[in-house]
Amino acid sequence: MRTSGRPCDPVRSLFEPESVAVVGATEDPEKPGYLLLRNLIDLGYRGKIYPVNRSRETVLGLKCYHRVSEIPGEVETAIIIVPAREVPKTMEDCGEKKVRSVIICSSGFGEAGREGAKLEREIIEIASRDGVRIVGPNTTGILNTYNGFTSSFVKLSKPTRGPVSIIAQTGMFASAMLEHILTTQPYGLSKVAGLGNKVDVDDSDILEYFEGDPETRVVAIYAEGIRDGRRFIGVSRRVSSKKPIIILKAARTRSGGKAAETHTGSIMVRDEVFDAACKAAGLIRAGDIEELLDYTKVFAMSPPPRGDRVGVIAYTGAGCVMSADAIEDYGLRLAELSEETMETLRMYTPPFGVLSNPLDAELLRMKVGDAEESMRLSLEAFMRDPNVDMVSLVMVGLRRDSRIWKVDLRRVFSKIGMDHLEKPLVATIMASREVTEDFDEEMGRLGVPTYPSLRRNIRALSALARYYLKYGASTYPSNLNWHTRRP
């Protein structure tokens, strides 16, 4: 019997359990059961933790139990990380204890051939009989940055909290890829759900949870197969009207489908069928990991644009031309600058300069003699212009000690009128590696998404515009705006 008064939602219990049993916990630092328990402790999970190991009395200073059923009080969720052959017996024990949900990290099931598939059917039957929901098997599982709960058995850095939640069919997104995101992306994470073989809890279940989760504002999905396509499309259609969903569907080809079958036991879906389903459900489809992260970044860090008109400020003539090509390629429009903007810019442009959008900001630098001031003037003019819905800034730099590009980015942005910042802005710089790294880091702190190329700038803005032109700005939380995310 539950005593907390919270709803008995087994999917919610996967992210917000008040108590967890770790079956397979150990003191051996080389084993997954140790790393998993250590992550729970180090990430600051405040619920009750019950290590389970038949051979120990304590693990990492916590009292250890020989079986889940021996644990006093309620066990809301169990994480199972024992050999596959021992999992059915453990599931029986969890059923006896009335555990609401289990996360099976162990591999050796449907992805491993006939014997594994037999074990998989056995645990499904036990779970169905006892009303237990399963994540996995064959997964690193769950992460909730807001309460420190995780089932990952890969050593994790302390995650930064943020608006992005991830659903993935591979444990990579709760391990190596998670580390990549945490250390290279300027936005924080809310939840991660690694679903593994998806024998029970699937993408649709997690999406329904994210739909009502106030800490999730953007959803990114990596899928190798969708088991219940009809339900997935129905749920996605409803959720995508409230929160953007970006999806990367792997196993698009026959070779990829064969690889996925041995990896997570997924069944391939014809790519053209899946593509049509994504469009019908309002999903934003990415072609690869790079594109998935690009789209996730712009949605996590940008306000909704009012339209599809792009203003380009580039410190290179070639950048102007290439940006114009990209804008047309991605179905956007070049903004026609207002007469007021043109008049303002003429004041800071040499007589021989030709003003247009894209704007070659080198013209302003020639007149005012300073890169920092020319950037401030250009940005302020474009941000004020009612004909400009989004802005792409393209810079060219040399070395860190270059006098030409000694720009205090924080000072530039603080000088821009704060009443004119409700527009998406993306940026890129073509420079030495050290300058690029400094630029990306500082812009990230200022809340501006950056990309390695101007074409990726425009591609990201295109995804942003398509979504908000379809669903409207009402999907964006009213308590958030562009300038409050720039310290």
CATH superfamily of the largest domain: Succinyl-CoA synthetase domains
| Helical residues, percent | 25-40%
Strand proportion: 15-25%
- Counting H and I runs of at least 4 residues, what is the number of helices? 17
CATH architecture of the largest domain: 3-Layer(aba) Sandwich
CATH fold assignment of the largest domain: Rossmann fold
**What is the CATH C level class of the largest domain, in words?**
Alpha Beta
Kindly give the count of domains. Answer: 2
Distance between the termini: 47 Å
Using DSSP, what is the number of strands?
A: 19
SS content category: alpha/beta
Shape: elongated
Q: How would you characterize this protein structure?
A:
With 487 residues, the protein is of the alpha/beta class. It has two domains: 1-301, Rossmann fold (3-Layer(aba) Sandwich), CATH 3.40.50; 309-485, Rossmann fold, CATH 3.40.50.261. The protein has 17 helices and 19 strands. It has helices at 10-15, 32-42, 87-96, 114-130, 176-184, 203-211, 229-240, 254-264, 271-281, 289-301, 317-329, 339-346, 362-368, 371-384, 409-415, 433-445, 454-471; strands spanning 19-23, 48-52, 58-59, 62-63, 77-80, 101-104, 133-135, 142-144, 149-150, 161-168, 189-194, 218-223, 245-249, 284-286, 309-314, 333-334, 359-360, 390-396, 425-430. A seven-stranded mixed beta sheet has the order 9-8-11-10-12-13-14, with helices on both faces. It has a five-stranded parallel beta sheet with strand order 2-1-5-6-7, sandwiched between helices. Strands 15, 16, 17, 18 and 19 form a five-stranded parallel beta sheet that branches. The longest helix has 18 residues, at 454-471. The radius of gyration is 26 Å and the shape is elongated.
